[in-house]
Please model this.
Amino acid sequence: MNRYIISGKVDILLMSLFPILIFGMLKFSGEDNLITFVAVLLISVILDNGHVYFTYSRIAKEFQKAKVFFVAVPIIIFLTFLTWQYFKIPYFYSFVVYATLFHFIRQAYGINRWYMLSEKGNKLIIDFIMYSLMITPLIALHFRSDLHIALYDYDDFFIYTSNDYLAKIICINLALLATWFIYELVNIKQFNKQRFIFMSSTAILFSFIGYFANNEIEVIIPFMSAHGLQYLLLSAKFENEQHKINFKKILILLVFIGAVFGGLDTYAQGSLEEDMNNIYMFSDDVLSKVLIALLFVPLVSHYIYDMKIWTKKYIQTLK
Model:
């Protein structure tokens, strides 16, 4: 039995193919193209920042169950980030970058698990393959010599160029793909088309980014498009099933939240972006450090809130 978030065709188009198409557009249209600029703006404001702030509408429904948790998380994150910057402890932005990548990976794994709910047999093998097909290209990214870093510092990504290590990672990646296809052939009677398509598209997206992305935009924006859209579709499904709100109203709400709160967040990031690293490492301006800490609180808080909200028990309540 195949499971769908929206429907078979919609899931394939939006959950699987859309991020790959975004990567292709960025790769072949160029950074200075108007279409690229509009796409990047909409993805970063509506899908990325929009889905972050939509999480807080979910919290309103869960708040009474864990008041202390939901209040304590942003306070602890703010104080941690402010202290981190005040004492100029290294790897502040590295933490943000890798926490974000971990969050992307965990959501993709969770969606794959959703598609597997009706499957029988040993799911741990698929779990291992799914994780490996996402992680190995990201490891390979760190060994490439043709990745150009502009928005961040090279140290934030722990780049270590090595063609030897890159070749070994590619071999491991190919071996994992072969293992996966053998597993599917051996278990052909349990074949799950929707899960297979999602796993394939996720592996393709991570591989394209890991092996062919040339800059941060080609890394970040496809991930944002995949992660944000998948999250919003799942949230829409929840609102539709649990609160009987139709998809059109949910879509209007999502666009509104993204445009208002996501727009403000994007503007704040743009205002501080050029000076962030200098403020963090060299400045003693406490107010600027407070603003940077506040800027990252919604993002990192929603990582933790998601772990509380999107539990296995909750996912199994969806049809």
Notes: The chain is about 75% helix and 0% strand. The mean pLDDT is 82. Residues 8-315 form one domain.
